[in-house]
Amino acid sequence: MVNFLGRSLTRPHTRDYCAGALMMLIGLGAVSQGFNYEVGSLTQMGAGFFPVALGVILMLLGVVLVCGARRKSIAAEKSAGAEHGAPQWRGWIAILASIVAFVVLGKYGGLLPASFAIVFISALGDRENTVKSAFILAASISAICVVVFWWALQLQFPLFTWG
Amino acid sequence: MIGQSLTALWQGFGVALEPHNFMWSFFGVLIGNLIGVLPGMGPLSAISILLPITYSMHPVPAILMLAGIFYGSQYGGAIGAILLNLPCHPPHAVTCLDGYPMTRNGKGGTALGLTMIASFFAASVGIILMIFASPLLVKVAFKFGPAELFSIMLLGLLTGGTMSSGSAIKGVCMTVVGLLLGVVGTDVNSGTMRFTFGLTHLADGVELVALALGLFGVTEFLRNVNRLHAVGASTKVRLRDMRPSLSELKRAFWPTVRGTSVGALFGAMPGTGPTITTFIAYALEKKISKTPERFGHGALEGVASPEAASHAKTQVDFIPTMSLGIPGDPVMALILGALLIQGIQPGPQLLTEHADIFWGLIASFWIGNVLLVVLNVPLIQIWVKVLQVPYRYLFPSALFFIAVGVYSTNNSLFEVGEVLVFGLMGACFVALKFPVAPILLGYVLGPMVEENFRRALLISHGQLSVFVERPISAAFIAASSLLIIAQLIFAMRRALGKNAQGNLLPTAPTLDEVQMPKAASDKDFGRSSVSSDHINFGKHGAQ
Q1: Residues 225-284, chain B: which have Cβ within 8 Å of A?
Q2: Between residues 200 and 219 of chain B, which touch chain A (CB distance below 8 Å)?
Q3: In the structure, what pLDDT confidence band is assigned to residue A136 with cuts at 50, 70 and 90?
Q4: B415 near B209, Cβ under 8 Å?
Q5: What is the rounded CA–CA span in Å between residue B151 and residue B448?
Q6: CB contact at 8 A, B72 and B28
């Protein structure tokens, strides 16, 4: 499934279908939300006028993208040669998880655990890093963090906290 | 008029040379240069990482430092392109074509020296243009009402969307997405909360730093993780090598002048990105050369001209940003955003109300560019070392600085979460081949566009014709329509299979092509699927 998704996204026309669909979706969201605010008239515009207008433009652009993709699928298939690199799930998940960890640990742990976690977890995302090298990197960055941000710059962020 | 400018400039030098201001300018150039050299970090990420520091500063040193970071990081990018063939920064990708062959011929030092001279020359020309053009532009700008402001912003947004790297229509899509992001928050006219989804943190709108770091920090890391490896053996660059010979200087002179003119021309057009400018400068140089076959094998014209173009454009870009309040490209949008946060509205009033900022900034450009030359001669050895920092240490540390930097802007963890959301969003857009830079342009201009559109129609009682009845506004609308028509014609020609532009613009190496030799030897990378996809500006540039 994952492989299928990865491969199909790399084909130019499938990608353009997705791109157009995404734009239409965002546009639709903007329009439907915009109607909740007051739209008003051209003379007296309400808060909703601008978002609705943008949403409509975005939907039109999405339609153009999809139409373009259909034409491309016939014309440009031959030029679809080398494409996208292999998906890097390990790296992606590690980077995203590290930021989540920073936010959660920042709230329920404090600056020091949060800093250690963001470096340690994201470093594990790189295949050339070992647990040991990630640990050393995280420890040294945490040390820098305490000296520079907590001690020198007096950042308003307690080193340790419990929520 | 000109005498007045010169007096003001003299005072500007006084402002820029005040010890406190000078210190921050120096710090900006140094740190910008350092971050710019790091693989995978460009001016956008350098400025956004350091943006939180400026929040607590006085406006004058803050803007001087940001400008320093900007050209420092821009020059730093050229070092990576020339010495290691790393096209991490789109504007410097074209420099790889001839810069790296020069390094392999043992002329890397000369290439760096020439780059330095060419960019210094181009920056000086740009600064002179700025001194004389800005006051003139300000005179015109005082005639601008809401209708004119809306039209020129529309033109800026359209060029920003269509002339950046990538497909034109996708660029426009991203501009609109950016405009929508600018809508988030409390509506100034009615007080309605828009797109806040019940989150009180969003009432003040999306945080600029969080958006920029998400789009240009986290997105880049997601793209490059496990794909970017340090390349190249240590290159020895000695001080002596950096001094080009007299004949080399002579050969580089006219290309530098031509590159400067191309850059200045494009800088004056709002919205054109720096990447396209350097590609055009390179193509022009190759076209008029008597020996085009030397290009790609270490022709020094191919280094001098694009580098001059990018630096001239950088300086000229400041003209519309400071005198009209309309940023030319995403970097300028970021600087404009920083000024707005400081409570300073760039525009015609800036010259009269904050003359110290305007002229101090211009003077600091010169000082900063001299600093850049002075710093790079002794520090080049260190930069070469910095270039080889492995990515596996680089990105976790950078993520930490991003998280702490964003937290420090408002002491809010919610904004760190915003970074995550925008990073993920940017990665999705990049995977679908959308250029992400126009989002920032749209985001910064969004509130201004809406405000002026509303005001113009309020004054004209809902008559849309107001935009074409006023002459200045009509000219901008006409230019916008021309741009759209030109893009349509190009699209039609391409659809008919006549590859109209052909290989007019050069194709720069992509990151993955550069990484291939290493990747092939890497067991994990043994699969054949690893190849070019990411930084494909070459092919896009031709569209």
Answers
A1: 225-227
A2: 218
A3: very high
A4: yes
A5: 12
A6: yes
At residue A139 the predicted structure's pLDDT band, cuts being 50, 70 and 90, is very high
Least CB–CB distance from B396: residue in A55, A92, A137: A137
Q: Is residue B52 within 8 Å of B209, Cβ to Cβ?
A: yes
In 3D space, the residue among A43, A52, A36, A40 whose CA is nearest the CA of residue B453 turns out to be A43
Count CB-CB contacts under 10 A for residue A91: 22
Chain B 371-410, residues with CB within 8 Å of chain A CB atoms: 390-393, 395-397, 399-400, 403-404, 407-408
Contact criterion met (CB < 8 Å) for A54 and B530: no
B467 and chain A: CB distance < 8 Å anywhere?
no
CB atoms within 10 A of CB A35: 13
φ/ψ of B193, rounded to 5, equals -80, 125
Nearest to A85 among B416, B457, B529 (CB): B529
Cα nearest neighbour of A115 on chain B: B400
Contact (Cβ atoms closer than 8 angstroms) between residue A126 and residue B392: yes
Rounded to whole angstroms, how far apart are CA atoms B532 and B348? 45
Quote the minimal CA–CA distance from B249 to chain A in Å: 41
State both tokens at B195.
């797109």
Closest residue of B to A26, CA-based? B177
CA A106 to chain centroid, in Å, comes to: 20
CB contact under 8 A, B453 and A50: yes
Structure tokens at B143: 């005639």
Nearest to B312 by CA among B304, B324, B302: B304
pLDDT bin (cut points 50, 70, 90) of residue A140 is very high
CA distance A92 to chain B (A): 6
Strand partners, B332: none
Q: Establish if A19 touches chain B: CB-CB under 8 angstroms.
A: yes
Please give the structure tokens belonging to residue B472: 């200045």
Q: How many CA atoms lie within 13 A of B73 on its CB side?
A: 29
Structure tokens that stand for B218 in this block? 């986290």
- Report the chain A residue with the minimal C-alpha distance to residue B527: A86
d(CA A32, CA A28): 6
What is d(CA B531, CA B529) in angstroms, rounded to the nearest whole number? 6
- d(CA B533, nearest CA chain A) in Å: 5
Chain A CB within 8 Å of residue B197 CB:
no
Q: Please give the span between the terminal C-alpha atoms of chain B, in angstroms, as a whole number.
A: 43
A44-80 b/e with 16+ CB inside 10 Å = b? ebbbbbbbbbbbebbbebbebbbebbeebbeeeeeee
All residues of chain A having their beta carbon less than 8 Å from the beta carbon of residue B190 are 37-38, 46-47
Rg from Cα positions in chain A: 24
Is residue B194 classed as helix, strand or coil in its secondary structure? Answer: strand
Do residue A107 and residue B226 have CB atoms under 8 angstroms apart? no
Question: pLDDT-derived band of residue B536, with 50, 70 and 90 as boundaries?
Answer: very low
User: Tens digit of pLDDT for each residue in B185-210?
Assistant: 888 777 788 888 878 888 888 888 88
- Mention every residue, 6+ apart, whose C-beta is less than 8 A from residue B351: B134, B135, B138, B323, B358
Instruction: Tell me the mean pLDDT in the region B134-156.
Output: 83
CA A162 to CA B467: how far, in whole Å?
Answer: 58
**Could you tell me the residue ranges of all domains in chain A?**
12-78, 89-152
Give the Cα separation of A124 and B416 in Å (integer): 20
B500: helix, strand or coil: coil
Which chain A residues are within 8 Å of B430, Cβ to Cβ?
none
**Residues B352, B52 contacting (CB under 8 angstroms):** no
Mean pLDDT on B102-127: 85
Are A123 and B396 inside 8 Å of each other by CB?
yes
DSSP line for B121-140: HHHHHHHHHHHHHHHHHHHH
Nearest residue to B72 (alpha-carbon basis) of B50, B54, B93 = B50
